[in-house]
Give the backbone structure.
Amino acid sequence: MTEFRFARRSAILGSSVFDHAPGTISLNSGAAYPPLLPDVVREAAAAVGQHREEAMQYGPLMGLNEMRDEICHFVAADGVVAKRHNVLVTYGAKNAFDLACRVFVEPNDRIIVTRPTYMTAIHIMRTHNVRFLDIGQDEDGFCTRELEAKLRRLEANAEPMPKLLFDVPDFHNPVGVTTSLARRQEMVALAQRYNFLICEDDPYRRIRFEGDAIPPIKALDTTGHVISLGTVSKTLAPGLRVGWAIGDAGVVRRMAMQKADGGSNTFAQRIVVQLMRSNRISHHISELTDQMRHHRDVMMEALAVHMPEAKAKAPLGGYFLWVELPEGTDAERVVELGVFEGVDASAGRLSFPTDDPGNFLRLAYSFVGEDKIRRAIARLGVAYRRYKQADNPA
Amino acid sequence: MTEFRFARRSAILGSSVFDHAPGTISLNSGAAYPPLLPDVVREAAAAVGQHREEAMQYGPLMGLNEMRDEICHFVAADGVVAKRHNVLVTYGAKNAFDLACRVFVEPNDRIIVTRPTYMTAIHIMRTHNVRFLDIGQDEDGFCTRELEAKLRRLEANAEPMPKLLFDVPDFHNPVGVTTSLARRQEMVALAQRYNFLICEDDPYRRIRFEGDAIPPIKALDTTGHVISLGTVSKTLAPGLRVGWAIGDAGVVRRMAMQKADGGSNTFAQRIVVQLMRSNRISHHISELTDQMRHHRDVMMEALAVHMPEAKAKAPLGGYFLWVELPEGTDAERVVELGVFEGVDASAGRLSFPTDDPGNFLRLAYSFVGEDKIRRAIARLGVAYRRYKQADNPA
């Protein structure tokens, strides 16, 4: 048996490999709702037919120019001013965030994150061997005051200062909260004062069920201290693997140089260009938002019926409910029992960069329809009652 | 002006961003010959039509099972025994190599490479902040005796031992040499004895013009010490961005966990599955090989006419000529002068991990047709004569 000499980072095993038992209902991934996946046969045929050389040859490292221009146009609706040279096309926002880490982060550097935060971002950061500076959230979102106090303390102690902040300011994954405009302004001011970059991950922004949109942090940035990470994974289809980073031209160029695989696949970009130009993307987002609002409502109702002990605040958009079980509950054990009942949920632990309070669940309502959502929550309710009957804590 | 605090690796600027002046003939990239790029309209329509959910949803992290099975079948023809669990689908072989680096390499680790070696592999390794243990090549390819001596010396000095070896054993990029069977066996024996992994990058293997194939190093591996890096970039189309790593099941699983972007794009995989199942890939390779042989011959002839001082050995396959100019020639200066004449060539320096002898050029005959190859070499000949007339060294 060969003993391989792995690097430290390779001990990090993420949460992305799922093997579902047949019949299991999955609430553990923000995957797309299959009935609404777009039909792109015409666009794909055009991409590889009319644009054969573009589609089949190595693509430009920064992405297709038309794709970069359409992205500028798409984000302009949110008040983000970007030119082509500010845009790097990537394989989704996760790939973009990894490239930002490659450009800025050295091992043992600190990255500012919320506690909890997006589980796959934690995975990516861990592969860079980082430490976390974790910050809480309240009903206004990111607690800038806590961040400021922590930065002051680091500075006073002459500690190395963080270079990056990662956050999901709209319909936060997993918590669901949206950071207020005032807090966003404070975040930018802190980024400028302490010279770190904010990676604003905003996949859910357009999936808003109620209330008024708040400008993206990137729209408040005048000094290049914000990198906006975008994707069509939540607005069109994850399988397209088209995302982007928008930032300072020199920064995104350096990110491009960290791509190991040259230009990203151009024919997926050409499909997205067509869907953006024809404005099919807007119609799709509108339909999807109605569907997701309904899923959220169904899940909230089902929780009230089947798990009345669980507390969850209805998010104003996005794909997830963040569920608090009574203090002391071992949510991981509830998830394990859920597997036997035929439901896959995510324990909150996966979303905590540091200590896990232990009694949270992240439930995605994006992937399965209303009937399955009801059945899944009923099964989770059974699992929870089994947990309690077994004389477990809480 | 914001002063960004970049990580060390971000100082590495690769060679992959090209801006060609109009009319310039490019010999500097192993891009595909456009007239032979495959028509995949039918396959693409099937991929997003009949397989809509597969194409549009997040893909499996390891790749589509059918894709992994087809890859096993494809490499079986070379004597490589692989099962589905040995195969990870990636965005091309470069992406696969980067993942291998992520799994094994710590900063300042040594990687064994030939001098010269594949320029983009050098770029990828540099982003991992590695050191190079560089080994020469002769007419039998990789100099195992030199490697053994260097490993012994490291061991005797209690130095950290390398964990990875990167090589292109068939039609080496850039040199063109093919490593003999005996040397391949010695490489495997050394990998086993010193417990390092061989990353065998084999994109050109099937583009053989003459002579008999030699088994891949992977076919000689019984202990999991070889990771075979494959791709359809050279056999079908680079734009598909479909490649793979074949290795020990636990190793490729760890490589998958280092993917920042989840599963690779499934609809490109579905296109490739169809092209492999229908055996269109074999017909395509056959046609492409004839075309590339012709390109090689035209370039060799043109060199003899326009640059008789240049020495190049006709490779038995692959995409490149490795051209030696008279000792003392500053090949980088010749390349610069070539730009003014309307030809883009690659100076050998880009292919040297450490010291560059200075008088080499890498010329790709893959991308442009015979007329342009002749014109490009004539222009390079003009550049070279200008160089000599300017009383430069050599």
